[in-house]
Amino acid sequence: MISEMKTRGLPFFYVVTLTTRAKRQGERNGIDYHFVSEAEFQRLIQNEELIEWAKVYGNYYGVPKKDVEEALSQGKDVILKVDVQGAATIKRILPDAVFIFLLPPSIAELANRLIQRQGLTTEELNLRLAKAEDEMNKLPLFDYAVISQKDKIDVAVSEILSIITAEKCRVRPRKIQFR
Questions:
Q1: 52 within domain boundaries
Q2: Of 26, 69, 114, 175, which one's alpha carbon is 20 to 30 angstroms from that of 130?
Q3: Who has greater pLDDT, 115 or 84?
Q4: Pairing of the two strands 100-103 and 34-35
């Protein structure tokens, strides 16, 4: 989704998440993720340089605070890719931010996507599907939901753009600033 938005040249600030996981084929450092060592990640946690972070499936993921603060101070619309836990943390820090939950059309479709993309074992797949179902139960934390249909990314991107447009037309705009 974010890749499609970038390809279209949409004028948003896309925060690149940090991770300690190994780079997958075709991924580029600084574009898809900032790939860092676990020691570097721990240093960032200790220095409070991350808005939020979590250990997921044995790897650390986090959002660099400086990038978000700078973009918001310049009046830019910031796009973050985080899981439900990350969204809950960010909602405490930036309660007026707009939260959009991207949903698969079904759990079966999600299973197919995970199998095709990552070649998971049955145990790994079941763990991820259970986590996805748990995350879907947290939908009320979000402001909007967008279903991401396979081969219809353009529809989901259009819906996200509609949400952003609607938010910009609010009579009482949200005030997005760090607490």
A1: yes
A2: 26
A3: 84
A4: unpaired
HSE-up of 127 (CA within 13 Å, CB side)? Answer: 8
Mean pLDDT of the chain: 91
Task: Report yes or no on 101 lying in a domain.
Answer: yes
Does some domain include residue 24? yes
| Among 42, 40, 23, 44, residue whose Cα is nearest residue 32 | 23
pTM for the complete prediction?
A: 0.85
| Averaged pLDDT for residues 116-144 | 87
Q: What domain range includes position 9?
A: 2-168
CATH number, domain at 16? 3.40.50.300
Structure confidence by residue, pLDDT tens digits, 7-34: 999 989 999 999 999 998 889 999 999 9
Tokens of 66: 């400086």
| Count of beta carbons in the 10 Å neighbourhood of residue 72 | 17
Residue 99 lies in a domain: yes
CB atoms within 10 A of CB 107: 13
